[in-house]
Automatic annotation (TrEMBL):
Record GO cellular component, one term: MHC class II protein complex
InterPro entries in UniProt: MHC_I/II-like_Ag-recog (IPR011162), MHC_II_a/b_N (IPR014745), MHC_II_b_N (IPR000353)
SMART domains xref list: MHC_II_beta
Source organism of this protein record: Atlapetes rufinucha
Domain MHC class II beta chain N-terminal, first and last residues per copy: 1-63
Name by which UniProt lists this protein: MHC class IIB antigen
Amino acid sequence: TEKVNYVQRQIYNRVQYFVFDSDVGHFVGFAPAGEMKAERSNNDSAALDFYRGEVDRLCRHNY
């Protein structure tokens, strides 16, 4: 099987705030506001489960 990766990036005004990468399995913040958002999202188990499942729902069936 192919290695499939899901990445979601939050960018506003050319500044990357945070990223979810299915290989990492959690959000990573870059700007101060993004670090707070990533920390909040990482503490929300429902959000993490949702984004971890996106690789199967959106990506894997195409390969």
